[in-house]
Amino acid sequence: MSNRKSSTQTGPASALAAEMRAVFRKLKQRLREHGGRGDLTPSQISVVLRLEMDGSATVSSLARTEGMRPQSMSAVVIPLQESGLVRGAPDPSDGRQTLMSLTPKCLKLLAEGRAARQDWLITRISQKLSVQEQEKLQAALPLLTRLVED
């Protein structure tokens, strides 16, 4: 006997999953529109967020982490350096290596973008949802959290 659930059991879950993906995709798009990172490529955004989360790194280690060749990662990092968002400095433990890190300009842009997205979302929630609807949305958050936990 198969371990797969019948289509009657997965039907509602399948429809819910499709609707959720569509809504979250649109929410992500709207947040992105209000976050001010429109001129960065997805690869550049990924590198900036990786450096913010993990700290300084070499181009080679960024490439490994992102699943790219070092030459391809260099093509991502160079425009970030040229725009003043990332800077390189000699690795104190190996002077032959260059550690890439975020500049204060980049950190400021990240903070401003997050604040703009937060402000937009607060405004939308306040304008579009009644107090009772906001409470329902709040009550659904633990369920959504369980979906993404390992």
Quick overview of this protein structure:
This protein has helices spanning 7-33, 42-54, 59-66, 70-82, 104-128, 131-148; strands at 86-91, 94-102. The protein is mainly α. It has a domain at 37-102: Arc Repressor Mutant, subunit A.
Describe the structure.
With 150 residues, this protein is mainly α. It has a domain of 66 residues: Arc Repressor Mutant, subunit A (Orthogonal Bundle). Helices cover 69% and strands 10% of the residues. It contains six helices and two strands. Strands 1-2 form a two-stranded antiparallel sheet. A hairpin with a 2-residue loop joins strand 1 and strand 2. Helix 3 packs across helix 4. The longest helix has 27 residues. It is elongated and about 60 Å long. The mean pLDDT is 90.
Residue share in helix:
55-70%
Helical stretch tally: 6
**Order of strands in the sheet with most strands:** 1-2
CATH hierarchy: architecture of the domain at 37-102: Orthogonal Bundle
pLDDT < 50 runs, ≥5 residues: none
User: How would a crystallographer describe the biggest sheet?
Assistant: 2 strands, antiparallel
Strand proportion: 5-15%
Mean pLDDT: 90
Q: Count the strands?
A: 2
Radius of gyration over all CA atoms, rounded: 21 Å
The end-to-end span amounts to 28 Å
Under the CATH scheme, which class of the domain at 37-102? Mainly Alpha
Which class best fits the helix and strand makeup? mainly alpha
Order of helices and strands: HHHHEEHH
Q: Identify the overall geometry.
A: elongated
CATH topology of the domain at 37-102: Arc Repressor Mutant, subunit A
